[in-house]
Automatic annotation (TrEMBL):
The gene is purC. One of its GO terms (biological process) is 'de novo' IMP biosynthetic process. HAMAP family: SAICAR_synth. This is Phosphoribosylaminoimidazole-succinocarboxamide synthase. GO terms for molecular function: ATP binding; phosphoribosylaminoimidazolesuccinocarboxamide synthase activity.
Length: 319
């Protein structure tokens, strides 16, 4: 692992945003700065971190970890479904084929935890149209992975749970497209769980985005990253589950827990500022997830991420 002193040294040089109007039309999401021109998007994964649909600040090396992990996973699943990837001119940048994104996110879960657990416990998990068994325990494994779709919300709003029946009734997605999208999600998730297991991790749940490009369904955005997924350490899962203890997490739930427990923040009002110590701790979690999943040490350079990206984009003719 990159030493803590390097992570600290990177704190002032993280990538908050990148203004490169020469790349095309900007859509600034919570995490990525997306420049589109024609049927291509240059997706710059910044170091921004969001939770409960709010941007909280930046985490050293986060953009690079996410972008490189997505590349890693795209390669691992390339026999299962086409993806939007065209080129990766920088460790934090992907050039992708622009698709017409489905207006729903395909969340697939192997375990009941997080927001679903909170809703289930409060008797509010009905919106998915799923007949949840009674008496489930927190962090319990489902017999089969379950898809809990959500609508894709605008900035500051929350994604809303939606049922398959409602998606079809409202015509948000055509039935045959929905059938294919969910089949792809199950295949991707199975591959993801198998790989994670081989690395001593549990892929607990994840979120896929898919879109139509040239009439074909493609996997877009990111996959199986700690932002879009939950990962637990496999060793000790059963024992922790049996005594009702927290699982050992390598994902964004760390920041959600910090916000809820230390600041009572769960998405309403102004989020608290991130201390440098929390930013370093979260960087270590992201890097640990990268190293455990890929089995390789994470190496990077301390210094301006923006300058590096501009240099690489120029060298490869994108600027
Ligand atoms: N190939 C693609 N075609 C069109 N849109 C895409 C593609 N890949 C990703 N996107 C969209 O680009 C955005 C990526 O930036 P992000 O910071 O994740 O935004 P958001 O805050 O909307 O989640 C997302 O809105 C995602 O749906
Ligand atoms: Mg996103």
């Amino acid at each position: 692992m990159i030493p803590e002193s390097s992570i600290r040294a990177q704190l002032p040089s993280t990538l908050r945003q990148l203004d490169l109007p020469g790349l095309g039309e900007l859509y600034r999401g919570k995490v990525r700065d997306n420049y589109s021109r024609g049927d291509r998007i240059v997706m710059i994964t910044t170091d921004r971190v969001s939770a409960f649909d709010h941007v909280l600040g930046t985490i050293p090396f986060k953009g690079e970890v996410l972008s490189r992990l997505t590349l890693f996973w795209f390669d691992k699943v390339k026999d299962l479904a086409p993806t939007h990837l065209i080129d990766a001119p920088d460790p934090s940048v992907m050039v992708v084929k622009r698709a017409k994104a489905l207006p729903v996110e395909i969340v697939i879960r192997g375990y009941i935890t997080g927001s679903l657990w909170r809703d289930y416990q409060a008797g509010k998990a009905g919106a998915y149209g799923i007949a949840w068994p009674k008496g489930l325990k927190k962090d319990q494994r489902f017999d089969q992975p379950i898809i809990t779709p959500s609508t894709k919300a605008e900035y500051g709003k929350h994604d809303e749970p939606i049922s398959e029946a409602e998606i079809l009734k409202q015509g948000l997605v055509a039935p045959e497209v929905w059938r294919e999208a969910t089949a792809i999600a199950h295949r991707l998730f199975q591959r993801g769980q198998e790989w994670a297991a081989s690395r001593g991790l549990i892929l607990v749940d994840t979120k896929y985005e898919m879109g139509l490009a040239d009439g074909k369904l493609v996997v877009i955005d990111e996959i199986h990253t700690p932002d879009s997924s939950r990962y637990w350490v496999a060793e000790g899962y059963e024992e922790r589950f049996a005594r009702g203890a927290e699982q050992e997490m390598l994902d964004k739930e760390n920041i959600r827990q910090w916000l809820i427990k230390e600041h009572g923040f769960s998405g309403h009002g102004q989020p608290p500022p991130l201390s440098d110590d929390v930013r370093v701790m979260l960087a270590q979690k992201y890097i640990e997830a990268f190293e455990r999943l890929t089995g390789t040490a994470f190496e990077s350079q301390v210094g301006s991420v923006a300058a590096r990206i501009e240099k690489n984009l120029k060298a490869k003719g994108y600027l």
